[in-house]
Fold:
Amino acid sequence: MARAGQVALVAFLLLLGAAPLTLGEFHVTLLNYIGLYSLVALGLVLLTGVGGLTSFGQAAFVGLGAYTTAFLTTAELPAALDGLGGSPWLALLVGLALTALVSAVLGWLTLRLSGHYLPLGTIAWGISLYFLFGSVDFLGGHTGITGIPVLEVFGFGLKDPRHYYYLIWLMLLGAIWLTRNLLDSREGRAIRALKGGTVMAEAMGVNTARSKVVIFVVAALFACVSGWLYAHLQRFVNPTPFGLHIGIEYLFMAVIGGAAHVWGAVVGASVITILKQWLQDLLPQIFGASGNFEVIVFGVMMILVLQRAREGLWPLLIRWLPQPAEGTPPVPIAAALPRRAVPAAGQVLLEVRDVVKKFGGLVANDRMNLQVAAGEILALIGPNGAGKSTMFNCISGVDGPTSGEIRFLGQRIDGLASRDIARRGMSRTFQHVRLLPTMSVLENVAIGAHLRGKGGVGAAGLHLERAEEARLLAEAARQIEHVGLAAQMFEQAGSLALGQQRIVEIARALAADPSLLLLDEPAAGLRFLEKQALADLLRRLKGEGIGILLVEHDMDFVMGLADRVVVMEFGEKIAEGLPEAVQSDPAVLDAYLGGVD
Ligand code: ADP
Ligand code: MG
Structure:
């Protein structure tokens, strides 16, 4: 982080530390609630803002944390469970374990639902857990549980809201630190890649289903901690604060604060909590009657924010903070990552045999056959709609063939998931560029090196994987220099010209250390000199022993570059051979030019 940002952070922390010394009890309590809500909203920043998964059900996880500790610290437990009773800190561990289990199972079931089914699924389990709290006898039904003990920290009883204040905010700051660390890591890049659709992430070897469950569980754990703190602060619980409408309010907080930024959670929770307090006092005076008028005001506010500031309030706020000094960060340097064995020149890497791909009645690939060897560039050409991209998707596992066989390094790969194919050493680019526009070129390329690191979520959260992370970033930097984009390394990928973005995709594919590279129309949108530079790069890669399968439209580009050419039309192979021979093949001329004399 830049110097100015650090100054702002330190100032904020000092203010935070001094607040209870000067504020009255009412305001300290308000800040306590803001802290508790921020913790839940922080989970939603990770889940919704970063991961793009909407959940209305977070309040239920708050309830799980609250009820677990309420029950364990107050109930007469049966002898078998006796060891678990009494201690709030032990109850926290039990609550976290329970929440992890429940959220992992719920996540596994609901996160596979796409589109509007996912939010609906979260509403369903949010309601179910809420009614569970209210109807189970040993949880006190709708009256709830009273007599929850105060927390003790090293023998010191937290009897005052001021005491809780420091615990709540320390835990929140800890959670913010963990979240920031997680996002700034290999796992974090995988999580941030979820929003760009799963196809790209999977092609880079990310298990996207697992990443989704991970952020779902982390968000639920934050909510659980919030519920645990809440129960001991209030010293009683009932189902009301864990209902669906509160779940919606948490989502409000994350969205209004700025769902893609960790501090957005704190801003959102503050704004909503203070506004709610204020409106609850003010509105009944205006309308001369009591009622939940603030809900209506919130609804209007939500619409306004979505209209005027889609990214929430945090990006607006940060403009008022001291800005980081200009200047490029240093290029990451570290020891090179281990590489896979380079196949012998001429060894067959890829073999496509009689592959058929049908979309309903349309035969997009009809008994296609082709081979690519190490150190060879094979160009796959043909008019628009011939089926080239479909062939690519079959090979790379995005969408498996209807029938036929595909072998990579001698082994069948048709039917494998694209991340498993990537793991074997095949990497690709996309015809329609799939970069994460707001991430830097460096971070985008580092996603390509995903499978070359091992650092897990826990290590990332605690930043214990910095040595490996440095090597991954250094590898990304090396590939960026390799393709000639060193000057753009720290720019946002979305700000580059389309042609350059294609080159970034090549760097990302190379960061995986592939034996076979699949490039879908890499020269589209490039200027003449850029095309020449690209051709030079591909020749160099070929010289290093990589096999390249190149889909291209531009005949001239292919002719000077490819060792062999396969021509497709209407899903079928109509010609194959050396570039010069193919170029004068009547069938090819016919396909491209609609017939010549
Ligand atoms: P190319 O890359 O050679 O331009 P494509 O492989 O993209 O061609 O498309 C080949 C044919 O398959 C086209 O007629 C296209 O409309 C059709 N097609 C491609 N993808 C799908 C899909 N997911 N569903 C249905 N039809 C598709
Ligand atoms: Mg295509």
User: Anything to note?
Assistant: The first helix runs from residue 3 to 22. The two ends are 66 Å apart (CA to CA).
